Amino acid sequence: MERVDETATAPAPAGKLQEEVGKVMEEARELQESGSSLLWKISNEEQSLRQKAVSLESSIRRVRSLISSAVSQKLLDRNQVIKFEEELHRASCIITDGDAAAFLPAKSQGRFLRKFLGPINVRASRKEVQLKVKEEYNSYRDRTALLFLLFPLVLLTLRSWIWDGCLPAFPVQLYQAWLLFLYTGLAMRENILRANGSDIRPWWIHHHYCAMVMALISITWEIEGQPNCAQKQKGVELFLQWAMMQGVVMLLQNRYQRQRLYTRIALGKANRMDVVWGETSGVDGQLWVLCPVLFLMQGFEAYVGLLLLKTAFVGVVPKWQVICCGILLVVMAAGNFINTIQSLMTKSRFKAKMKKSKTKQELD
């Protein structure tokens, strides 16, 4: 039999072990001291960069104020003003869209995030992490847009083919629970995006708050059956039809407007953390498709809200849930319409400014 080397398996002397343990402890202390020293240096450098970033933002605001003062005194012509504003905008984009954005003061996260997540900082310090948050938001919109279209379509189809024109309560309440999950997820993601520098308009987040409340209320809404099922469920049917239209609009926005946003980012006219707004317009060719659909959807949303209020007040479905949902639908429709008009006006002013700038360059 082969002999085993006893010296290889014999335990080391106590003195040798003590030396090894001491060596490990010394290396651990050195690593701790080196790490502390490095973190102290990084903290000092980071504080210095934060001060420079704040100072530069203040300088941009000061220069813009000087430009406004010069314009009021008629010391600058319009072309010079446009040129200066474009350069300042690009300088601002460099700060907010580059790695220096991590050193800018963090935006307030708002009560919504604090209620759900507590007092934690959701602002990412690295730009690639911020962009991943944005891409996850876009992916979430893509997934939910298709479900937004298919879910009510399936319910209405089954209502006609299987349920004899009368929707059962459970599938509708399941759909409302999914809407509550959807709008809560959108609101949380959009609040996080705003904290990381996105330009989402506050109304679209507030719109999702209203939709969350409506979904929560509608879950408690008792769905009436026979007799007169068709009359009692008319509001539910119209709401499902509106939801299908909303799904179509979301698909159009996700398909066409995002490409436009990528183009604007490449041209330096938008921040990489910007996203497609809830009801914004696309490029010129898309206006003829999106705008009529948007206004039709908003009008139909207001019509459904008014119909729900009518059914409650005339005694067809006299429930407080119907009244609340009707009011919320009307409020959301009005807010969407106003913000769509504001978006179109902003786009129109921007196009006019770019056209004048282009004409000036051609003349030069």
TrEMBL record:
**What keywords are assigned to this protein?**
Membrane, Transmembrane, Transmembrane helix
Signal peptide, first to last residue = none
Carries keyword Transmembrane helix? yes
Q: Membrane-spanning residues where?
A: 144-162, 174-192, 287-308, 320-341
What is the top-level taxon of the source organism? Eukaryota
Q: List locations, semicolon-separated.
A: Membrane
Membrane topology, from the record: Multi-pass membrane protein
Which family does the UniProt entry place this protein in?
Answer: Belongs to the TMEM120 family.
Under what name is this protein listed? TMPIT-like protein
Organism equals Hibiscus sabdariffa
Q: What is the lineage of its organism?
A: Eukaryota, Viridiplantae, Streptophyta, Embryophyta, Tracheophyta
